[in-house]
Amino acid sequence: MGPRLWLALGAAAWTAPALAPVAPPVADALGLPRRLAGRAGSVAITFDDGPHPQGTPAMLEILAARGARATFFCVGEQAERFPALCAEIRDAGHAVAIHGHRHRNQLRLTPRQFATDLERGVETLGELSGTVPGVYRPPYGVFSPAGLRIVRARGLRSLLWSRWGHDWRRRIEPEAIAAEATQSLTPGDVILLHDADHYSASGSWTRTARALPRILDRIEERGLLTGTV
Questions:
Q1: Which of 63, 188, 205, 206 has minimal CB crowding within 10 Å?
Q2: Which residues contact 180 (CB under 8 A, 6 or more apart)?
Q3: What is the model's pLDDT at position 15?
Q4: For 198-219, how does the pLDDT look when each residue is reduced to its tens digit (9 = 90+)?
Q5: What are the C-alpha distances in Å from 104 to residues 101, 107, 110, 135, 148?
Q6: pLDDT digits 0-9 by tens, 97-117
Q7: Distance of CA 203 to the CA centre of its chain
Q8: Which residues are within 8 A (CB) of 181 and not within 5 positions of it... i.e. 6 or more apart?
Q9: The pLDDT of residue 40
Q10: What are the pLDDT digits (tens) for 174-191?
């Protein structure tokens, strides 16, 4: 076997986990959940990239008005900027999960860099929310082989998603977000949304806020409930 083939095989092994968000068979092979097992009659709404000074309170207000529960995958560096919001999420009955300390692609980090980032994020969110996060989702949904091992060794559960609304885009309407996020929705589905625009199109959270009531309407129309992960 020539060196080029070895390099190609090595590159494929390194990047394979990164395909999990868009390739369900890869996620299944790696044991990365995209759905929640044993959730008869309920789905999970999840928000990435916060907390955000306007976006997070907007989502909390809508959820409170509808009696819905969600999980917020928070970024440590943003929690440090807006330290009161993690506790507000918790006090409102939602779950705080970990999305890293900085929003960086694992494939661009050494194992040591990633482990340091993960530990700092867990520590930061634990201090600010009062509860140590037990569920992790990587930025962009991208795992490296080393990152996957480190997360599991840390005792964290990983969770990707089975439905999303592409709400981070600059040109997408709330109705399109809601339609895509709830297409063929079934019990156990995990919906990915964003309560922040720190790492996406400026103001994108405003369209998510406008889409969220429609998403909740369609969840209710299907006779489903919402719950934390």
A1: 206
A2: 163, 164, 165, 166
A3: 56
A4: 999 999 999 999 999 999 999 9
A5: 9, 9, 12, 17, 15
A6: 999 999 999 999 999 999 999
A7: 19
A8: 163, 164, 165, 167, 191, 192, 193, 211, 215
A9: 87
A10: 999 999 999 999 999 999
User: What is the rounded distance in angstroms from the CA atom of residue 67 to the CA atom of residue 36?
Assistant: 21
CA-CA distance, 119 to 83, in Å (whole number)?
18
Provide the residue type at 10 as one letter: G
pLDDT band for 9, please (50, 70, 90 cuts).
very low
Task: Give me the phi and psi of 45, to 5 degrees please.
Answer: -95, 130
Q: How many CB atoms lie within 10 A of CB 144?
A: 22
* Residue 66 to residue 219: CA distance in whole angstroms: 11
Q: Round to whole Å and give the CA distance between 218 and 185.
A: 9
Global pTM value: 0.93
- What tokens does 114 get? 């990633």
Backbone angles phi, psi at 167, to 5 degrees: -75, -5
Torsions phi, psi for 208 (to 5 deg): -65, -40
User: Residue 30 burial (CB < 10 Å; 0-12/13-18/19+)?
Assistant: middle
> How would residue 140 be classed by pLDDT, with cut points 50, 70 and 90?
very high
Crossing angle of helices 111-129 and 84-91, in 10° steps, is 60
Label residue 153 exposed, middle or buried (CB < 10 Å: 0-12, 13-18, 19+).
exposed
